[in-house]
Here is the input.
Amino acid sequence: MNATMSLTVFSIAVLVTSIGAGAVGAILGLGGGILLIPILTVFYGVDLHYAMGASIISVIATSSGAAAAYLRSGLSNLRIGLFLVMATISGALLGALLAGVVPTRALELVLGLALSYSAYTTVKQLRDELPESPPDDPLALRFDLEGTYHDLRLQRDVIYRAQRVVQGFIAMFGAGLLSGMLGIGSGAFKVLAMDYLMRLPMKVSTATSNFMIGLTAAASASIYWSRGDIHTLIAAPVAIGVLVGAYLGTTVMARMRNTTVRKLFLPVVVYLALSMIVRGLGLHLP
Amino acid sequence: MTRLRASFSVEHLVSRILLFGGLLGIALVLLGLVLYAAHGGFRHHVLDLRRPVGQPPGVFVSVRQVIDGLTGRPIDPLAVSALGLVLLMMTPAVAVASALPAFWWTGDRRYALIALVVLAMLALSATLAGSLH
Here is the structure.
């Protein structure tokens, strides 16, 4: 693998790749790190630290671009996002302090199995366009965890309210904790917790996750920055491409069915589950 | 006044700040790259994708270094891009900071408090990041 490349060729290639990563990230509520880090390291030969630094920039750019559009259209729920991000950031803080104390391999294995179960539940509800009208959760009422958006695909207003808020909050704390301890993004876990536990419409789940990932990434961005992991010439084409891609992604996602978004999300969960099990078992794949 | 409050949406404010923060950051990143190209930075430039010992050009680890790059003569074009990245990184926190008084003003004290807690957590993370370094 060549570890040097013409700057012009590199910038154009990364710009194009990042447009795709931004679009996928905006649709699925992920920061794009899950796509960008392997591509940058495996195909372009970028050092892992620089790739992670570029990924954190990508998450914030995706979040800013996508959440700006989703908040305006009502797909991102600001209150649900702020309420849950308290759990995620405090989990991530504790996770960063615990990193190195708890055996990583066992954690990865447990996470891999939990994700496998999530993949199974995602398959089970693959055909559900919208969750059934919920029994009232007292915390959801108290904290105003509800909203309305106009669904461009269904051509009607969709009213929703969060369910199982306590479980959702605990899951968000766990997502933050694991991402802090294992150094992985938590966008996918946020979507799963909102979709499966709190029974929010899938599009609201990914759009609200898009808002939240910007905050959790901003919380750790200064670490990457002060370590010298953010290389301007690598992060710059990523940031530009991802912002353009995120904008394109939001226009596409607004017109998708909830079931389509969930179908696209399933392979991500399966991939994450397998990669965690592989890491947990200590196997090394190319 | 009441009508103004009723029509005011915290979501729209936060949405605008995320949009303009993101666009301003990206505009500076782009401007830096254009200046870098104008100075012949892209000509025959072979980018080393490995992480060397020490600090290669294009890597800034503090705001101080970015300011030095911006105030130096000639100006360091990559410092302009780095400033754009810093603005981008600050955008989510600025959005929450603006939501705090907006929630308070619309009478939602509970969410003003939640925004404050989130901001405090972001500040704590940044402080911890500094102390770990």
Observations:
- DSSP finds five helices and one strand in chain B.
